[in-house]
Amino acid sequence: MSIVARPKPRNLGKLMVSHVTVAHGGGGKAMKDLIDDVFVSAFDNDLLAPLEDQARLDLAALARHGDRLAFTTDGYVVDPLFFPGGDIGKLAICGTVNDLAVGGAVPLHLSCAVVIEEGMAVETLRAIARSMAATARAAGVSIVTGDTKVVPRGACDKIFITTTGIGVIRPGLEIGADRARPGDIVLVNGRLGDHGAAILCARGDMALQSPVESDCADLSGLIAALLAAVPGVRFMRDATRGGIATVLNELAAASRVAIEIDETATPIDEGVRGFCEILGLDPLYLANEGKIVIAVAPEDAAVALAALRAHPLGRDACAIGKVTAGEAGRVSMNTLFGGRRIVDMLVGEQLPRIC
Amino acid sequence: MSIVARPKPRNLGKLMVSHVTVAHGGGGKAMKDLIDDVFVSAFDNDLLAPLEDQARLDLAALARHGDRLAFTTDGYVVDPLFFPGGDIGKLAICGTVNDLAVGGAVPLHLSCAVVIEEGMAVETLRAIARSMAATARAAGVSIVTGDTKVVPRGACDKIFITTTGIGVIRPGLEIGADRARPGDIVLVNGRLGDHGAAILCARGDMALQSPVESDCADLSGLIAALLAAVPGVRFMRDATRGGIATVLNELAAASRVAIEIDETATPIDEGVRGFCEILGLDPLYLANEGKIVIAVAPEDAAVALAALRAHPLGRDACAIGKVTAGEAGRVSMNTLFGGRRIVDMLVGEQLPRIC
């Protein structure tokens, strides 16, 4: 390795290599070309300032959306990078947009930091960047700043993406894990476990074929429709790693309530159910990337369900249970056979790199 | 692997393991314990809301600092994790705080997303989190939201950290890479190349011992002092990957000016200089983590220098050159021996994982 500058004709044009090298993470011309060619050209928007180390956003313009800034970050390490229903780029946008939206925020801007393994095909990187750009555009958010690191072969597996989002919450919305009250109704917007099942099948090491696609989706439109109909929603959370079991446990603990769900009311695709039976998995713990758990006051439940069902991403929405004054933090499920079982926080190992 | 919940007594207490397992990334109880024990306890602040997927920040409170939100992200993959003068945690805070400050923003809040390799010692993780917390506290910023992923052994090298920062820029400050004008003076706040040299030595594969420490530092206080003295600063940039050569090239290109620096005026530690001579490195391309390149109008140069030198992190500040009306984008150095050489954008390979 040499870090002595070798004079070379300028303006040689953009990337002329097929694979990422460590030079693309060096801070020099190769990195600038990679960023311009792959990311800046895909993310193209007025706020992106590739010449600066920071994006600048007018506070007055943000304040027109509401009174509180929501700020959230997530790293995406999913394996494989491309899977039925999505890819790491789509996931990295949807996941962070959803984390903003479930708190009641209008998602507005994202940052994107990537760690790339030396040797990655530039075409793969382009496909991921295009997927991020298209997903962001559809969600109405702009990717306004970023960072690129390249590590030597073997120091990371292909690519990790961290997106950080900012959005704005309008006055009056008060959504939180500590706000559920006995009597509240628990809703979901559709069938559970599709993402986890799709990723497991896509890895191929289960030797199972399944037609299940990931439910990876931007839920901000669905959530906006729900909040327009029911501004008093108590709680929303996208049920990603750990599935709805984890979300319900977090809600029950933070609100100091019990939650009872009904197995018969819990929507699970037949394919996913069969897949879980064969592998001994519990679909309540399978990751989703397009499903939210919602708690609303009982008098709001019918309006909330109607609003969800009127949206393409909520057609299969249903009530799965209710909040009770039982033991604080306890989540239980009334089973198909009339029994009841505890739905505990996930204790053992989970599936690594599911998102 | 099983994702079926195994009922287990609750409130068992916190982490009882010495090393991170994939279960710590699963979204369940192990992950919650790891986050509570290692990160939440270290980062402790009023805005941190571990029960929610997002932090919420009052827009009116932000607007008291200025009129524009600055937003920046960086991934940190430095190897080794601990080095003379710093560690990946300190670096992940200082680097992002500095990226905010060089644009004129008051750094306020950070997010922190980590990707951890299975098998990492929990004590190492704690040391990194403590370092992040102490550095953030000293810089006056709060870490308000985060994310934790664990990948199987071999899928990443120990730990990668992505921090994203928000700050606010007060009205009237206009700092940018396109604002340098012929006649402007180029300043730096001290000796160059210490971070790059320290990391190279710390890796040990050069079989060189050197007393050089990384200059890794939070520069927000120094920058605030400079802006108080000279609000009309044209440009600031921390000279990280690619060194000052890269920053000067970016400035010259964006402002469509030429820049001439003087080798005799460019401050480099004798140890670093010797180290570079032995290895055939050019210190202008070595990374810094506590040095900024500044451009000011000629009439402001004396006041700017005095303000920098009055601060502990600017004691060795000096003028290293000037902006000229020469060929747009050209950076050159008048050498010790009376010649002149082009200082081009870094073209070849750089040192991977320097930050």
Automatic annotation (TrEMBL), chains A, B:
Occurrences of domain PurM-like C-terminal (ranges): 181-332
Domain PurM-like N-terminal: start-end pairs: 61-169
GO BP field: protein maturation
Pfam family, one: AIRS_C
Protein family (similarity comment): Belongs to the HypE family.
NCBIfam families the UniProt entry points to: hypE
Protein name: Hydrogenase expression/formation protein HypE
Organism: Zavarzinia aquatilis
Lineage: Bacteria, Pseudomonadati, Pseudomonadota, Alphaproteobacteria, Rhodospirillales
